[in-house]
Amino acid sequence: MEVNQLFKYRKDILDASKDDDEFIRQEPVINELLPYMLDAKLVDSEDVTPSYFSPGYDSIKVNAYTVNDSKERLQLFIINDKSIDESISEDDLCISLRADYDKQFKMVTKFLNLSIKGDLNNKIQDSDGAIKSLISKVNSSDGIEQFDVVEIFLLTLTATVSNRGESIQPRKIHFGDETLNAKFERNNETIKKKF
């Protein structure tokens, strides 16, 4: 596939994600991408809980979450804000460095760490229903015990490219598994767990 073709798909997704005032909204972007993720068997269904949370401090963000059918996988979704900005040039949407993606993933892992520790409980309001529910679950011993794996899906409308040779070519970047350590109290006993 050519890089130009990727940008045609991007335009179609952005056009489908605009509201009546022609503003691109993040929730419809997720809804546009979920069928592709389901076809690729990355998710079990297209049902996710929208839970936009980006408070402007601590460099944390989450757009949506779901729990897989067998209930042991928590799946978190984040949209790369820059990638849905129509004013960004195609050159700036060509990503060749893994660090650009790592920065996005770190926003979610930081959210997860702060949630497990309970640091976000007092920073959210009751009106933040879906995200408050997620944080409460992750912070509970039941949630820590229930989830064995946390999958982070970065939804970005960029092109991952290689600049080697005479032309820009699409390429893949592999992200390996990482371990997240957590501990919780149950019956006066400290239990440690690796996600």
Annotation keywords:
9 strands; alpha/beta; single chain; 195 residues; three-stranded mixed beta sheet; globular; four-stranded mixed beta sheet; 23% strand; 5 helices
Describe this structure in a few short sentences:
This protein has 195 residues and is an alpha/beta fold. The longest helix is centred in the middle third of the chain and has 20 residues. The radius of gyration is 18 Å and the shape is globular.
Map the helices and strands.
Layout lengths: L2 H14 L9 H14 L9 E5 L8 E6 L5 E7 L14 E2 L2 H20 L11 H11 L1 H6 L2 E7 L3 E4 L6 E2 L10 E6 L2 E6 L1
Parallel strand pairs: 3-5, 4-6
Antiparallel strand pairs: 1-2, 2-3, 6-7, 8-9
Helix pairs in contact: 3-4
Describe the structure.
With 195 residues, the chain is of the alpha/beta class. It is built from five helices and nine strands. It has helices at residues 3-16, 26-39, 98-117, 129-139, 141-146; strands at residues 49-53, 62-67, 73-79, 94-95, 149-155, 159-162, 169-170, 181-186, 189-194. The chain has a four-stranded mixed β-sheet, sandwiched between helices. It has a three-stranded mixed β-sheet with strand order 4-6-7. The two termini are 35 Å apart. The relative contact order is 0.16. The mean pLDDT is 89.
Q: What proportion of the residues is helical, as a percent range?
A: 25-40%
Secondary-structure element series? HHEEEEHHHEEEEE
Helical/strand content category: alpha/beta
Main pleated sheet: 4 strands, mixed
User: What distance lies between the first and last C-alpha atoms, to the nearest angstrom?
Assistant: 35 Å
Instruction: Return the average pLDDT rounded to an integer.
Output: 89
Low-confidence stretches: none
What's the overall geometry?
Answer: globular
- The total of helices stands at 5
In percent, how much strand structure appears in the residues? Answer: 15-25%
Radius of gyration, in angstroms, nearest whole number: 18 Å
**Adjacency order of strands in the biggest sheet:** 1-2-3-5
